Amino acid sequence: MPELPEVEALTDFLTEHLVGLRVARVLPVAVSVLKTYDPPVTALEGARVTEVRRYGKFLDLEADSGLHLVTHLARAGWLQWRDRLPDGPPKPGKGPLALRVALETGEGFDLTEAGTQKRLAVYVVRDPAQVPGIARLGPDPLAADFDETRFAALLAGERRQLKGALRDQSLIAGVGNAYSDEILHAAKMSPFRLAASLTPEETRHLYEALRTTLTEAVERSRGVAAGRLKSEKKSGLRVHGRTGEPCPVCGDTIREVSFSDSSLQYCPTCQTGGKPLADRRLSRLLK
Fold it and tell me: What one-character-per-residue DSSP string does 173-233 give?
């Protein structure tokens, strides 16, 4: 799933390639991708893109007509930029193409989604706050006003485990499965540690790991072409998706806990005092 660093990089890429250009056509291929119908997507045709913003994992394209094309790429979605779009309209089918935006220059981009679980979402709204997911977002962890005091206030009284708390978009916007693993590894904390149990010093350490991990990921992705962002993300991850490989810090074997629809990766030596986590739903540290 694209998370804050990748969506931030897409925002930079589209700002450079898209702002100032006029939309010629918006062509939905998979009807399921459209989550709003008034205004219709065709209302964007003829409008000029004026700004590209990021809200958590949401990407917002603002037009001079006052409309916004907002998308959430979900787990398997992606944006593919094309210097020259194919001639003729795309044909509906079983392929990954969900929606195409064609520009007056002949350039454009495709929104695609792999797999059978179609969760990619596109909204056309007059105000991004009309998108339910954006309206519920917590603070952006890279915002200038997101300091340690604000972070500590969010965790105070939070009875959930750190892994779940970091992934909750209403608590902190933009962190998903991959970067929550990376942040907790950098902080040397168990994913199942209760958020409210952290001492002030541990909270400070987690805050620093959060900001550093995301900032470094954004810097790695900055300037990378949209088509290469996925591979860039994977190459920069230290524990997530690396089950069975040696930890780059201590050399211990990276382990995994699987759930019904996701998994997490961690280093026992760095994060759980050398104790492996039980690989079952509602996992707890082995006594």
Answer: SS--HHHHHHHHHHHT--TTSBGGG--HHHHHHHHHHHHHHHHHHHHHHTT--GGGHHHHH
Measure the CA–CA gap between 269 and 275, rounded to whole angstroms. 7
Give the C-alpha separation, 238 to 26, whole Å: 39
Provide the angle, in degrees to the nearest 10, between the axes of the packed helices 200-221 and 4-17.
30
Mean pLDDT of 193-214: 97
Q: Name, in order, each residue with C-beta under 8 angstroms of 167's C-beta and a sequence gap of 6 or more.
A: 175, 176, 177, 180
Tokens of 237: 């991850």
What pTM value is reported for the model?
0.92
Question: Is residue 282 exposed (0-12), middle (13-18) or buried (19+ Cβ within 10 Å)?
Answer: exposed
Give the containing element (helix H, strand E) for 166. helix 162-167
**From CA 159, how far away is CA 77, in angstroms rounded?**
32
Query: Is residue 139 within 8 Å of 146, Cβ to Cβ?
Result: yes
Buried b / exposed e over 127-138, threshold 16 CB at 10 Å, is ebeebebbeebb
For residue 51, give the amino acid letter.
E
Measured between its terminal Cα atoms, the distance across the chain in Å is 33
Whole-angstrom distance, CA of residue 213 vs CA of residue 178: 11
Say yes or no to pLDDT of 286 above 60: no
Cα distance between residue 256 and residue 278, in whole Å: 9
The b-or-e profile of 179-190 (16+ CB within 10 A means b, else e) is bbbbbbbbbbbb
DSSP 254: P
pLDDT average, residue stretch 70-79: 94
